Amino acid sequence: MGRAQKVVLAYSGGVDTTVCIPYLRQEWGVEEVITLAVDVGQGVSLATAELAETETRRQQELEAIRTKALAAGATVSLVKDVRAEFVRDYALPAIQANALYEGRYPLSTALARPLIAQLLVAVAEEYGADGVAHGCTGKGNDQVRFDVSIAALNPQLKVLAPAREWGMSREQTMAYGERFGLTFPVKKSSPYSIDSNLLGQSIEAGPLEDPWFEPPEEIYTLTQSVTQAPDQPEYVTVEFRQGQPVGLNGENLAAVTLVEQLNVLAGRHGVGRIDMIENRLVGIKSREIYEVPGLLVLITAHQALESMTLTRDVSHYKRGIEETYAQLVYNGLWFSPLKAALDAFIQQTQERVTGSVRLRLFKGTAVVVGRQSPDSLYDPNLATYTEADQFDHRAAEGFIYVWGLPVRVWSQVGQRLP
Fold first, then answer.
1. How confident is the model at residue 380, as a pLDDT?
2. pTM as predicted
3. Domain spans of the chain?
4. Residue 3: active-site member
5. How far, CA to CA in Å, does 4 sit from each of 26, 28, 60?
6. Taking the domain 195-372, which CATH number applies?
7. pLDDT by residue (tens digit) across 317-329?
8. Distance between CA atoms of 139 and 254, rounded to whole angstroms?
9. Which InterPro entries match (predicted)?
């Protein structure tokens, strides 16, 4: 396959994607590089999330990224704010699916990748580009998510991954960029690799590669240490409509605002830290640290509401679907036929998942302490052990006889065998 002539590059403003611009043009003969910076809510911390100037700072940072790409040789530099689409089209379906990879990771980073891929394809088609590019390395999950998603959306586009092939260290990469007039103010970078968005952040590399090493407090920016968290619990109530969070503490909120506010509330109490050894798609194990305060609270609350509103058989069957769903998202198969089929099943299950869940936030925990729903299948007159009990206890004997009949027959036959 020949090299592309006009390429849309997924651009973050970091060293690797900035160096990709001259590298694509000089080494691979790309005539035109169009950069696309996607705003999915990255860059927010617990310290800044409540400040009025947060949005102004965000716009300033995005404009700096846009101009940086032009200075590096991009012919067009685009910035798109897709926070609303990110939550509506990607986060909310994952919450409805209770998607937790390997039972723990709520896919905060993975969920952004198919959206970025979708935008890369759209911009490539709009500008008549014949290729798209990203800055992923050769042993991570993101390269798979980008490449497979792009192929699913437009298999005619060429996918270029310079950082997967150039074989340069970070120092060599910066030196290469300096040959073309690029400057990198910070020569000594953090030992950690951090990816953040509105749903949370992932932290890896550096000293964290030692599974015995305790993560230092300095890596956390969305959650407060439990030692510094308030000494009194705080209660929050999340309202759901058909499986989607629509309100917080009695106030109807847009999805983005709800996630932002819950990030602050839960993060202040140290909720949402995950330290796990994770099985990457490429076959290696990786130590990952995640901060996902709001997202983890929403999934916890959603699970509690489903326990009241789904029948037993649907609830049990959905658990297997949830595991498969999480694997598909993690493995870059958001746009696959199986994912679409599971979406249809999950949406059907959410028709009556409406109600409120009350949680207690305290010292790193988010505990469900109450739930209510107009569609609740919990009947206190059947569950109670008081004199208000309306359950027909006499029916139990016949039920047990029929239920246990296969086991009884099996046992009787077994006793006749030598």
1. 83
2. 0.92
3. 6-191, 195-372, 390-416
4. no
5. 13, 8, 32
6. 3.90.1260.10
7. 999 999 999 999 9
8. 37
9. Arginosuc_syn_C, Arginosuc_syn_N, Arginosuc_synth, Arginosuc_synth_CS, Arginosuc_synth_type_1_subfam, AS_cat/multimer_dom_body, Rossmann-like_a/b/a_fold
